[in-house]
Design goal:
Number of strands of chain B: 21
Radius of gyration of chain A: 19 Å
Strand order of the largest sheet of chain A: 6-7-8-3-9-10
Largest sheet of chain A: 6 strands, mixed
Strand content of chain B: over 45%
Largest interface: A-B, 24 and 21 residues
Helix content of chain A: 25-40%
Shape of chain B: globular
Number of helices of chain B: 3
Largest sheet of chain B: 11 strands, mixed
Shape of chain A: globular
Helix content of chain B: 10-25%
Structural class of chain A: alpha/beta
Number of helices of chain A: 8
Radius of gyration of chain B: 20 Å
Number of strands of chain A: 10
Strand content of chain A: 15-25%
Distance between the termini of chain A: 49 Å
Oligomer: heterodimer
Distance between the termini of chain B: 33 Å
């Protein structure tokens, strides 16, 4: 179980400045075991920052973070990972010379047979065994890299997995496969929880609970069936295209010099 | 042949060859400036040079699936060993050559080994050359390695060279030259790690003379502490050919890295490209590996190991 108690996170407006801006504003939240939680809300609302605070990539200005009853507020990223918190980055790093198989093995904390590696990759829609010997460098496309990032979390199998916009950079055709994977992996009732930061309706609809963040505060939180109607999602019958009124284009404000 | 090796020598040899003890097949092992043991095979003849110190290695036409080991170990201080090794590889061969030098120096005196290697690679032959350079020991004496490698590739030959300076070499100046005939291809990978006050210079001069010749140079290096590395790879295209030079360096501490890749085209169908990048380990990379349970130090080491792998 994850408990956030009165979390505040301020950043300096500019380097060296004593003036600060509040990114996370007194958030308290409990995520019990066996929960599929989606954190959503407008851009700049503090979603990614909240995820980074849970993983330890950022340290809160004040407040407390408890994981399974242990105070992890001051713990390093490494120690939190060892306790069972995992994080899937929105923009994954590339590693020159590191093979995909090696990255999966580091994630799993042990040597993995080829078959196991292939299973992780096929769960994220990378079905060719060739990927295992590919390097995690710029030879991979953004979408491939993103899917490998998700596969590392599947291999790590943390008790609490946090995914920051896993759908970003993934094509429509692989996205279906991915939502099936999230559903299959995190709805097993094995005590593992998942927090996904997402704007995607199809992911939001998988959630047990939904948290809406706006301006660093929780705007709404609760069971999906209560929150989804408040989100005003524009889901239409067509799964892949929902046509909406095009926005007005103010051509005078769009730079044409670049 | 039974040869007694001290534990230090055995360890040096294993670092160079990846084989415990004396390897099988054709080999020539040199220790402290003298021949330790040698074995020729039916297709590979190793003979002492008559003019210079060193050996001639002659590989018969059509030799396939064989290996030659020519490691050098130096565990005595104050030695300056210069050796000339010339390979004559026939046509239609497919062979691996494992070379390198390991220096163990516990003294304040310098130890130096300069290997002058020349390769004549016959038509349609395929050669894989692996060279490892390594230094160790508690002494303040310099461990110096100045290899000179010259390759002449005949038509449609393929040569893959993997040259690695693993660690512990105080000073090195590497000169690698090659001339490629029609349809010949060379893939040259150089990996260097320097730390402390070490200095490394690598000069390359690759001439693409024949039609459709092709060279790919990949240089990966890590410069730590106060070490200095200088790269001068030059590819000259004198025919319709392809050349690609890629220099990548990770810089740490107060190290200095200079990469000056050069390309010269003297034919309108010469296609030559170079790229060079120097940078530190990205914080994002370290954080990613920490989220997988590695400590910061383990993450850094993992990134360096993979980069130089």
């Amino acid at each position: 179980m994850l408990e956030l108690k009165n979390i505040v996170f301020d950043v300096a407006v500019e380097e060296g400045s004593s003036k600060t801006k509040r990114i996370i504003d007194n958030i308290s939240l409990t995520i019990p075991d066996d929960k599929f939680v989606v954190v959503t809300g407008p851009n700049g609302g503090g979603k990614s920052t909240l995820a980074k605070l849970i993983m330890g990539i950022e340290t809160p200005t004040s407040g407390q973070i408890l994981f399974d009853g242990t105070d992890v507020t001051e713990m390093s990223i490494t120690d939190r990972a060892k306790l069972g918190i995992g994080y899937g980055f929105q923009q994954p790093s590339r590693f020159k010379g590191m093979k995909v198989k090696k990255l999966l093995e580091i994630a799993a904390g042990k040597r993995l047979p080829m078959l196991a590696c292939n299973e992780y990759l096929s769960k994220v829609g990378l079905c060719s065994a060739n990927y295992l010997t590919r390097e995690v460098d710029k030879s991979l496309s953004g979408g491939e890299l993103k899917r490998i990032e998700i596969a590392t979390l599947l291999a790590a199998d943390p008790k609490l997995a946090i995914y920051d916009e896993p759908e970003a950079g993934i094509d429509l055709w692989s996205f279906d496969r991915l939502t099936q994977t999230f559903e299959a992996v995190y709805k097993q009732g094995n005590g593992h929880s998942i927090i996904i930061i997402s704007h995607q309706e199809r992911i939001i609809e998988l959630a047990d609970d939904i948290v809406c963040l706006r301006d660093g505060q929780i705007e709404a939180a609760g069971p999906a069936e209560e929150i989804i109607p408040q989100l005003g999602l524009s889901r239409k019958e067509n799964d892949y295209c929902s046509f909406t009124q095009p926005p007005d284009l103010h051509l005078t404000t769009i730079s044409t010099t670049c | 042949m039974s040869v007694d090796l001290s534990p230090i020598d055995a360890d040096l040899l294993k670092t160079l060859t990846n084989v415990h003890g004396i390897p099988e097949g054709a080999y020539n092992i040199r220790k402290d400036g003298e021949l330790l043991t040698r074995h020729s095979s039916a297709n590979i003849e190793i003979a002492t040079k008559t003019d210079y110190p060193g050996i001639d290695i002659r590989i018969k036409d059509g030799t396939k699936g064989e290996r030659v080991y020519i490691p050098v170990i130096v565990s005595k201080a104050g030695i300056k060993d210069v050796v000339y090794n010339t390979f004559y590889i026939g046509d239609n061969c497919d062979v691996d050559i494992i070379a390198g030098c390991g220096i163990h120096n516990d003294s304040h005196q310098a130890s130096e080994h300069d290997g002058i290697h020349t390769f004549h690679i016959g038509k349609n032959s395929r050669v894989k050359y692996i060279e490892r350079h390594y230094g160790e020991g508690s002494g303040t004496g310099d461990r110096i390695l100045n290899p000179v490698t010259t390759v002449y590739q005949d038509e449609n030959s393929f040569c893959e060279m993997e040259m690695t300076q693993i660690r512990g070499v105080t000073s090195t100046v590497r000169d690698t030259d090659a001339e490629l005939g029609a349809g010949a291809k060379l893939v040259l990978t150089e990996k260097l790690l320097t730390d402390g006050d070490q200095k490394a210079t690598s000069n390359m001069n690759i001439r693409l003379i024949g039609e459709n010749s092709n060279v790919q140079i990949i240089s990966r290096s890590v410069a730590q502490d106060n070490s200095v590395q200088i790269f001068n790879p030059l590819v000259a295209g004198e025919a319709a050919c392809h050349g690609h030079v890629q220099c990548d360096a990770i810089i740490m501490g107060k190290a200095v890295v200079k990469a000056i890749p050069g390309i010269e085209a003297a034919h309108e169908d010469a296609q030559l490209v170079h790229e060079a990048a120097i940078g530190k380990i990205a914080g994002d990379q370290i954080i990613k590996l920490m989220t997988l349970g590695l400590t910061e130090e383990e993450a850094e080491q993992e990134i360096l190991d993979d980069f130089l792998n």
